[in-house]
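INFO batch 0412 | record 1 of 1 | parsing
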Amino acid sequence: MLNHECNWTLPSSDLSLSGNDVHVWRANIDLPISRLEELERTLCDSEKARAGRFVFDADRRRYIAGRGFLRLILGRYIRQLPEALVFSYSPRGKPELVANSPAETLYFNVSHSHDMALYAVSRTRCVGIDIEHIAAKCNVEQLAKRYFFPREFDAICAVAPERKNEIFFKGWTVKEAYVKATGEGLAALEQVELAIAVDGPAVLQRIHDNPDATGRWSSCQLSPAPGYIGALVVEGKGWDVKLLLCL
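INFO prediction complete | emitting tokens
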């Protein structure tokens, strides 16, 4: 399934999230100073300290915006002020929301690239999301040879030079979203094999160290905006995705 930019809508005032819903939020994290200061006030002390350790101001600003929007989004679902949210972290650094009751349980994942961030949220399913700026300068054939299986590598090499980045990142985002959903980390990328279509989405085909995993997970390719490509991986089947704008 490929979702296009025109499908992104503003959320309704009575935002709800059922068991089969997965909401994906898109946010521009290149913000004016006044908006950035508003978001910074919602961060906890450790987040503010981390922001202060960035060497480059652009990275600091994107981090503040990304974390601030995460707090705003999650706070809407559980009806809490963004600054009141508390996070815990897995051994690999994956954040989780500390819930005070079962009604506050949320599964979420975050990704950002360049000036844009995506957030995936679900009540009942583990989720992973990735976004990439496809104009990024990198040697995609070298990366594909390192992380992709031979058939995936051949699919990338076979396309015209002007489409190599697009096809590479189509596959890369699904692989990244999968390992983020499972919490396994980047080392597991080499186990994820895809069916990569030139004019369609990349699809999970096989997890080499866990043959039963592909029956547990499903994916969706995303088109967040011109120059970007993304992917969503969700636990189980039969879920419904809704694309929302975060302002």
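INFO post-check: The chain has a mean pLDDT of 92.
INFO record closed
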